[in-house]
Amino acid sequence: MNAQDDSVVGRFWAEALGWGVSSEGPGVTNLEPVGFTYPDPVAVCIDVLRVPEPKTVKNRVHVDLATTSAAHQADLVARLQDLGATPADVGQGDVPWTVLADPEGNEFCVLEPREIHRDTGPIATLVVDCADPRAMARFWGEAMDWTLHEVTDDHAVLRSAKGVGPYLEFLRTPGAETVKTVKNRIHLDLRPYPGDDQAAEVARLKALGATPADVGQGDVPWTVLADPEGNEFCVLTPA
């Protein structure tokens, strides 16, 4: 997650999720559940990275938060606003979930209680706006070892093969077919398993349809690629 002030945004999300905070270096705030041991799929952790540019357009990628009851939803919305969240209008109309924005304007949803999210942890879903959920399901279903739970013309849903943690949803969204003009402020990082070869994994992803992406990363140990709809993601070195 990009931010002009990683410490402010990091503190907000740590309080929002009830997670711990650390830092691997200047300009980076790392968030993960207390006691978490990587690569446990029970959570998808968040790294907040400082960038100079401000947010200028609606994010194509956002987080949905889970709730367990109507009272919990109302209490969470109130608590998040006390922490610095503000109401956001992304054209959602009359819906049972609440759309908010974090201190730097990153939109996110506080969902109404849903049975499917009863065991996801605080993050229910990472949602990616797209033009073609079926095509995205084909790419990401091969890119990761997650299980495809559902795919239609309107959305595709994946989750860890272990059946734990948040879901990843590709949601058909009006306007998503337009050409991206700025890099995503929220993106996925993929890490090969111990013993796997990073270059071989990059080659495999390119064969699936990924393309090289330049976001100004310079000489770094990770490789930046883009999925078939231009969403950037990073392939890290093996753990």
UniProtKB/TrEMBL annotation:
Residues 122-238 form the VOC domain. GO terms for molecular function: lyase activity. The keyword Lyase applies. The keyword Cell inner membrane does not apply. This is Enzyme related to lactoylglutathione lyase. Keywords: Lyase. The lineage of its organism: Bacteria, Bacillati, Actinomycetota, Actinomycetes, Streptosporangiales. It holds the Pfam family Glyoxalase_6. It comes from Streptosporangium brasiliense. Transmembrane segments: none annotated.
